[in-house]
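Predict structure. Chain length: 113.
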Amino acid sequence: MAKTLSIVMLCFCLMLVLLGEIQASSPASQKQGQGSNHANGMYGATQGSLRPQECNPRCTARCSATAFKKPCMFFCQKCCAKCLCVPPGTYGNKQYCPCYNNWKTKRGGPKCP
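Prediction complete.
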């Protein structure tokens, strides 16, 4: 009886281990691993990493320190819609989003705040 019980417990433990291995190698868990920008705070700062509905909160944060909020928000949202990224912080850091950085006005100045 004790031998049968120990065999059943051993089989149960092996099934748990195998189930854990299957879940760890599933496409959903691999997809989460690829999206490491969420974990390191770079989500939305690399080109194409935002969805269009995420532009408004990112631009609100980007334009929070300026005295010219309305034009800042207008151009930030326009740039975000095109590039699908907003650099981190309130100023600079445009190297994270080349599209945002390289879009210029007719006079050659930066289009995106």
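Summary: The helical segments are 2-24, 27-34, 55-62, 69-83, 98-102.
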